[in-house]
Amino acid sequence: MKAKKKKAPSHHHEKNIRAVIALMTLLIAFSILVIFYFYKDNIVAANMFKPFMFLAVAGMGLLVGLLFLVNPHKRK
């Protein structure tokens, strides 16, 4: 009987965390869209459109930056 060779440790944890971060980014983007859809009249009537858009753009910018940091492409 031949001894089984040990495989090199795979990077399943890195792939899983990248997938979770990407899913969280999509969920947050979708939630921003849903919040605006349901409360658009209140946001516009209260003259809070510019602050809402600023927070939405800043939040999405941070999330895109996070996705950039966990990008699987490695520099050579």
Could you explain how this protein is built, in words?
There is one protein chain. This protein has 76 residues and is mostly helical. It contains 2 helices and no strands. The longest helix is centred in the middle third of the chain and has 34 residues, at 12-45. The termini are far apart.
Flag low-confidence runs: none
The biggest beta sheet is recorded as: none
**Helix proportion:** over 70%
Look at the structure and give the mean pLDDT: 80
Instruction: Output the number of helix runs.
Output: 2
Hey, roughly how much beta strand do the residues contain? under 5%
Global shape: elongated
- Class by SSE composition: mainly alpha
Q: Strand-and-helix sequence, N→C?
A: HH
- How many β strands by DSSP? 0
Q: In terms of topology, how is this protein built?
A:
Layout: H1 12-45, H2 49-69
Helix pairs in contact: 1-2
Descriptive terms for the model:
76 residues, mainly alpha, elongated
Short description:
The chain contains 2 helices and no strands.
